[in-house]
Write a structure and sequence with these properties.
This protein has 134 residues and is mainly β. It has a single domain (2-133), classed as P-loop containing nucleotide triphosphate hydrolases (Rossmann fold, 3-Layer(aba) Sandwich). The protein has two helices and ten strands; from the N terminus they run ββαββββββββα. Strands 1-2-8-5-4 form a five-stranded mixed beta barrel. It has a two-stranded antiparallel ribbon with strand order 6-7. The longest helix is centred in the N-terminal third of the chain and has 10 residues, at 26-35. The radius of gyration is 14 Å and the shape is globular.
Length: 134
């Protein structure tokens, strides 16, 4: 199991891991997904491991059910202990995202899922994630 500086939600039964440096919008994007029906797995740190050919994301015990809402504080909310990952998002500035990108993958221990370079603050972010998960 590997610890990642990331945030993770379960969105309609599909895990989405959001990767990026501090202040890139991981928690903000997760909060918007939660507002559209997603469930928190873990905020800021996520444990990921390959199990039976699938990537499984687990919440980190000491931060279970907590999400940082900038300007508000740490908020306790409903969460799941784990989810099967279907999509990884690498948060980067909008200007650096290719309009028609080549396929990328997130690989850990031989388990792979699609990886998208993503703008966390895009107005259409939630809609884009829905499309990517189909």
């Amino acid at each position: 199991m590997t610890l990642h500086h990331a945030t993770c939600v379960d969105f309609n039964g599909k895990g989405v891991v959001i990767l990026g440096p501090s202040d890139s919008g991981k928690s903000d994007l997760a909060l918007r997904l939660i507002d559209h029906g997603a469930t928190l797995i873990s905020d800021d740190y996520v444990e990921i491991k390959c199990e039976k050919g699938q990537l499984i994301a687990h919440c980190v015990p000491n931060i279970e059910g907590l999400i940082e809402v900038r300007g508000v504080g740490l908020i306790k909310m409903d969460y799941l202990k784990y989810t099967t990952l279907h999509l990884a998002l690498e948060l980067i500035h909008r200007d650096k995202i290719e309009r028609l990108p080549v396929d990328k993958i997130f690989d850990q221990e031989g388990c792979q899922i699609p990886l998208l370079e993503f703008d966390a603050f895009s107005v259409s972010a939630v809609a884009k994630i829905r499309v990517a998960l189909k």
